[in-house]
Amino acid sequence: MVKINYISVAKRAAAIQISELKKINKIFNKSFVKAIDLIENCKGKVITAGIGKSGLIARKVSATLSSVGVSSFFLNPSEANHGDLGQIDKRDLLLVFSYSGNTSEIENMLRYANRFNIKIIGVASKKDSLLLKASDVKILLPKVKESDPTGMVPTTSTSITLLLGDCLAVALMNKMRFSKERFKVFHPGGNIGQNLLLVKDIMIYGNKLPKVNVNKNIYDAIKVIDKKKLGLVIVMEKNQIKGILTDGDARRGIKYYSKDDHLKKFITTNPLFISETAPASKALSLMNEKKITSLLVTTEQDYNKSKSNKKLKGIVHIHSLLQYGIK
User: Fold this and answer.
1) Residue 260: what pLDDT?
2) Percent helix, strand and coil across the chain, each rounded to 5?
3) Going by C-beta distance under 8 Å and a sequence separation of 6 or more, which residues neighbour residue 2?
């Protein structure tokens, strides 16, 4: 029995795919640019579709588009033939993958889209295929050599289709001026999103801030605490921060409160601050270290200034951190 060197086999398969994938450059033409424009200008959803291996590629492309802010979902053409065509709206756009372009299951979907003037971007390797004939934008995949021993199993062909999908997404991201800030919006969970999240992305600000004037009484302060439900109130004098009053300190203070007392008697005058540009994970670490549930947020420029000179930007609460999966 001949012993097979599987490492050599794997390297040979990889070499075939690496060489064949260079043919991707043939795709980057006017049709590719039209596809980018059509996706960006879509007023509805980008619906990806495909059968078998092409269906798996279509699912991945849809997931990538969604992750960069393009509303998208995958529709199985077989399911569409049994009632799911109703999911397609006239404002939507179809992005259909089929290496041969003649998969029978996609025929009804294409006919439906053509009937209602729903735009189609077709991706196939046969110029005269059913898919490309029905498409408004035709992306012709180059013929490639499969990397398996028979030269028949979809390997390189699926890789080049997946590569095209990624290239569409990357080109679209550039056209949309996609940034880390936008990425954070669509990826609040997961390691990448968590590492990118800053305090300013999850802080509470504006009218949601629990604030009370230093000249108010302790009962007024408790009303604000109860209304804003953050467990504390920020005590202000004009635009200056005088301190914070926690729910616990307020309830205990009532026992010793008289009408002549000011809030200054009960507040914590040196609350902890964090810069709005600090990583959200740093805020959680500080809360855990100090055994508190909230931090006042100030600007990066004001962070090292005295309390009275700090500009109040918001509050970061431990519940917000946990909601975004920061641990």
Assistant:
1) 67
2) 50, 15, 35
3) none
Find, among 35, 13, 305, the residue nearest to 159 by Cα: 13
Helices and strands, counts by H and E, the chain: 14, 11
Structure token pair of residue 316: 């970061």
Give residues with Cβ within 8 angstroms of 147, minimum separation 6: 12, 13, 14, 16, 17, 20, 155, 156
Q: What is the pLDDT of residues 137-176, one digit of tens each?
A: 999 999 999 999 998 999 999 999 999 999 999 898 888 7
> What's the predicted TM-score (pTM) here?
0.59
Contact 27, 142 (CB under 8 A): yes
Q: Tokens representing 291?
A: 């055994």
| pLDDT greater at residue 104 or residue 96 | 96
Residues 279 and 300: their CA atoms lie apart, in Å, by 12
Which residue is it, tokens 């039209």? 34
Q: In what order do the strands lie in the sheet with 46-49?
A: 72-74, 46-49, 93-97, 119-124, 137-140
Query: Counting Cβ atoms within 10 Å, is residue 102 exposed (0-12), middle (13-18) or buried (19+)?
Result: middle
